Amino acid sequence: MKLYWSLKSVPELADLSSTDRRRVWRAAWRESGGMSYAEMAALGLAVALGATLGPLAVGLCLGIVGLLIMSRMVNRFRPAMLVARRRLGLGMPVGRADA
Questions:
Q1: Is 47 within 8 Å of 64 (Cβ atoms)?
Q2: Which of 36, 58, 75, 79 has the least C-beta neighbours within 10 A?
Q3: pLDDT class of 19 with cuts at 50, 70, 90
Q4: Neighbour count for residue 5 (Cβ, 10 Å)
Q5: How far apart are the first and last CA of the chain?
Q6: Percent of the chain clearing pLDDT 90 (strictly above)
Q7: Residue 97: pLDDT above 50?
Q8: Where are the domains of the chain?
Q9: What DSSP string describes 5-56?
């Protein structure tokens, strides 16, 4: 699984201006349903578990649980970005050789 550290590095958003990238990202977040209550509860439990063990454990627990949640969310989020682009009238992404 490839990790994207900024909106500009996401292939579906790379050809847009920074303002349009944020617009598509927000629309796709709403389209995909954002985070479910179960996912938010899992993050809360990770913080609670980590807090009992110390500050380093909080980061470790959040990292592990967050990675699992985000990898699951990407399956429903990337198609939502394409739908949001079309809905906002920004067309389809330009093909990339490395994508």
A1: no
A2: 75
A3: very high
A4: 7
A5: 13
A6: 6
A7: no
A8: 35-89
A9: SSGGGSTTTTTS-HHHHHHHHHHHHHHHT-S-HHHHHHHHHHHHHHHHH-HH
